[in-house]
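Limitations
The structure tokens in this dataset are predictions for the assembled complex, not deposited experimental models. Users should treat interface geometry with appropriate caution, especially where small molecules or nucleic acid strands are included. An illustrative entry is reproduced here so readers can see what is and is not provided.
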Amino acid sequence: MPELPEVEVIRRDLEKEVVGRKVADVEVFRMRTIRRHPNKAHFKNALVGRKISSVGRRGKYLILKLDKGSSKSDKASVLVIHLGMSGRLLREKSKKAPTLPHTQVVIVFTQGGQLRFVDPRQFGEMFVTSVDELDGIEELAHLGFDPLEDNIPWTEFGRLLTQRKTKLKALLMDQQFVSGIGNIYSDEILFEAGLRYDRRSDTLSSQEIRRLARAMQEVLQEAVKQRGSTLEDEQFVDVYGEPGNFQSVAQVYQRAGQPCSRCRTPIERARFQGRHTWYCPQCQS
DNA sequence: GTTTAACCCTGCACGC
DNA sequence: TGCGTGCAGGGTTAAA
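Predicted assembly:
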């Protein structure tokens, strides 16, 4: 599942591959991916003729800025992309490259090359909106701080934590509290910080708050450096189709029964809010 | 305010 | 072997 590090890897790849390119054509295979648009033509018309001027990220959302079209009435707009659970963005140099199963949208550039959105489970989505209306999109407007971009002081982080009375894993995965963290990285961050998934957020000492703030930065930065996590059952790849490597340095995620790297106690798996969580029963409290 | 459950969809494991 | 059923998986939202 793409979380902040995977989305950031894609963002950096797209910066190299699509900025400056102009959209020549758009093919939509299923409506579900562009469900915020009334029909395929509406989505296509919003993109054709526009040039991509930059690629940004908000939490797990990619924001591709589009320059103004040729008509005077055209407003500056953005293409917003969420990869959902299984979405992939792939750059294809040739239009002759075979179309993978579950390809939902293909964007063709005037300079040649294509960007393809492949999403088997169809939880991902794409939509075009004007820059003015972007802040009115609820999912984006309600996003919490970005753990890598917004360098919030640990004291402020502590204030936010103690304002809430909820279990740490739930809070880390709450996009309205902090944006971009999902199941993999919440487990890894909590291990790094020595805190249990079900520890209440308002019971942390200042030392523990600092440890958690530091773990969040370190784990996410390392994951970006490793170009994300590609697990057996997930299959994240970058825009060149290459897998990430963070899974090989992960300490607890999907490692039940294996000895903890710090204390050799076997890693345990528990069920938390309908999902699995992995932790060291000795090192995390 | 916090927790739980359901939904979205596909692929896969399992049992008959 | 082939088919049908049930469920995992993450994010979001509605309901409890």
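Some entries come with short summary sentences. For this one: Residues 206-225 of chain A form the longest helix (20 residues).
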